[in-house]
UniProtKB/TrEMBL annotation:
It comes from the Bacteria. Binds 2 divalent metal cations per subunit. Zn(2+) 2 binds at K144, H177, H206. GO terms for molecular function: hydrolase activity, acting on ester bonds; zinc ion binding. This is Phosphotriesterase. PROSITE patterns: PHOSPHOTRIESTERASE_1, PHOSPHOTRIESTERASE_2. Belongs to the metallo-dependent hydrolases superfamily. Phosphotriesterase family. InterPro entries: AryldialkylPase_Zn-BS, Metal_Hydrolase, Phosphotriesterase.
Length: 319
């Protein structure tokens, strides 16, 4: 087995149990939060997160992978307080979330730039994995990057290559936010492979937003796992369509490439709680346990298939 770093310390990969591979505890912008969210109550937000994650554990989920990185509001001390109060393993990430450019802090520093130096992003990511994040003692267990409809912009490529380099140095697995509308998962695989990444250690995130099974099989044939990870975001793809796509993947023999999640959160500052509930009423941590798994079983998957998807595949992502 393999050691997996969690917020409360290292565990053996066999202890992950049923794992949702892409969930956020908090998604927020610190500057916006500090300057404009006058009703922010830190203690209430922490209590609410503890309640939601405790409920998730009671539904049979043992671990979540939280790919909240720079650009999404990662703040480990808050997550530590929550993790100390829940019987649920939380694996946090390092990386950078951008669809276009790198932040200004990096635009002039790096190989061949105004301040010519080794890639500072790689150095940051490696440090988070090997030494810990911001003096908290919590080590990142996964790496995260993104590619969207804008495609492989110079900033996106720079981050992706830095993530690939950090993977080669640390062995930490990778999750990539992609948009299947432009088959950007294939682009991510190409770039990461050029950096020496083992594609079997890559989850192509948001693969469940498409029902193009042939595209998904191409990703899986290259070795990667498929992030069927936005259950509840029915406005992107309805639940029954997502379920049908997984059933077809399993029928074709790809059960060992399927992973599940909601890409949900305890709190997000993109919109109000009421707007979130109105636009995506099923976008919460209970949806997979209460609705999706029964639908998969009704559609022909076996209990062993579900165990492979929720337990074996996330474990192998680390091993």
């Amino acid at each position: 087995m393999t050691t997996v770093q969690t917020v409360t310390g290292p565990i053996d990969s066999s202890e992950l149990g049923r794992t949702l591979v892409h969930e956020h505890v908090f998604v927020l912008n610190t500057e916006y939060n500090q300057n404009y969210q006058d009703d922010w109550d830190e203690e209430e937000r922490i209590r609410d997160a503890v309640e939601k994650l405790t409920e998730l554990k009671a539904l049979g989920i043992d671990s979540i992978m939280d790919p909240t990185v720079l650009g999404l509001g990662r703040y480990i001390p808050r997550i530590q307080r929550i993790a100390a109060q829940v019987d649920l393993q939380i694996v946090v990430a390092t990386g950078l979330y951008t669809y276009n450019d790198v932040p200004h802090q990096f635009e002039h520093r790096g190989p061949g730039l105004l301040v010519d130096m080794p890639e500072p992003l790689t150095e940051m990511f490696v440090k988070d994995v090997q030494e810990g994040i911001a003096g908290t003692g919590v080590r990142a267990g996964i790496l995260k990057c993104a590619i969207e409809l804008a495609g492989l912009t110079p900033g996106v490529e720079r981050v992706m290559r830095a993530v690939g380099q950090a993977h080669v140095q640390t062995g930490a697995p990778i999750t990539v936010h992609t948009n299947p509308a432009n088959e950007s998962g294939l682009v991510a695989q190409r770039v990461l492979e050029e950096e020496g990444v083992d594609l079997s250690k890559v989850i192509i995130g948001h693969s469940g937003d498409t029902n193009d099974v042939d595209y998904l099989c191409r990703l899986a044939d290259a070795g990667s796992m498929l992030g069927m990870d936005r259950f509840g975001l029915d406005l992107f793809n309805p639940m029954q369509e997502r379920v049908g796509t997984i059933i077809e993947l399993v029928r074709r023999g790809y059960v060992e490439h399927v992973t599940l999640a909601h890409d949900a959160n305890c709190f997000i500052d993109y919109f109000s709680a009421d707007a979130k509930a109105h636009a995506a009423p099923n976008w919460h941590f209970r949806h997979i346990s209460e609705d999706v798994i029964p639908a998969l079983l009704e559609g022909g998957l076996t209990e062993a298939d579900v165990e492979t998807i929720l337990v074996d595949n996330p474990r192998r992502h680390f091993e």
